[in-house]
Design goal:
Order of helices and strands: HHEEEH
Radius of gyration: 47 Å
Distance between the termini: 105 Å
Strand content: 5-15%
Number of helices: 3
Largest sheet: 3 strands, antiparallel
Number of strands: 3
Shape: rod-shaped
């Protein structure tokens, strides 16, 4: 059964219309796919930029932390070396005091301590010298002014001042340079 010419033309027109519709739908689908891909690409770029910004912030924080740790380590190492030098200096000073006490300059050293105590109190005053513990005490006549002078006390005060200076440099405070 052959189709009649009118039917063929109608069938051809329907097929042509279907082909046009198929082409239109395919073009719309391809345009939609392109639009979705463009949106997905833009979203990927946005997410990558966000992630990169977050990583850069984390890196900056880590860099600051590591730099702070390195500075603290360097400061601690430097102060540790200074403390060892101070310990050596105080040990040497103690040894020198021991030698002075038993050496030929002992009387002159006690006399110098007494003179310093007298000068601190002012005249007139009573000066007491204890050669046994190497301590000199000067007291004003009215008893209001008093000065004690001894090498062990001086060394102890110098050590405390040095340790305070080291702690101030390490932990901060006035004059710490921190």
């Amino acid at each position: 059964m052959d189709a009649e010419p009118g039917q063929s033309a109608l069938l051809g027109a329907i097929e042509a219309r279907a082909e046009e519709e198929r082409a239109r739908l395919l073009a719309e689908a391809e345009a939609r796919v392109a639009q979705i891909l463009a949106g997905a690409d833009a979203e990927c770029e946005r997410l990558k930029a966000e992630a990169l910004a977050g990583l850069e912030r984390e890196l900056a924080v880590e860099q600051v932390r590591l730099l702070g740790e390195a500075r603290m380590h360097a400061r601690t190492e430097g102060l540790g070396r200074r403390r060892a030098i101070l310990e050596e200096a105080f040990w040497r000073a103690e040894e020198r005091i021991k030698r002075l006490r038993s050496g030929p300059g002992a009387k002159a050293a006690l006399a110098a301590l007494a003179e310093e105590a007298r000068a601190a109190v002012g005249e007139p005053c009573d000066v007491q010298v204890s050669a046994a513990d190497w301590k000199v005490t000067a007291v004003s006549e009215d008893g209001r002014r008093r000065a004690e002078n001894d090498l062990d006390g001086r060394l102890l005060r110098a050590r405390a001042a040095a340790e305070h200076g080291v702690a101030r440099r390490l932990f901060g405070g006035p004059g710490s340079g921190a």
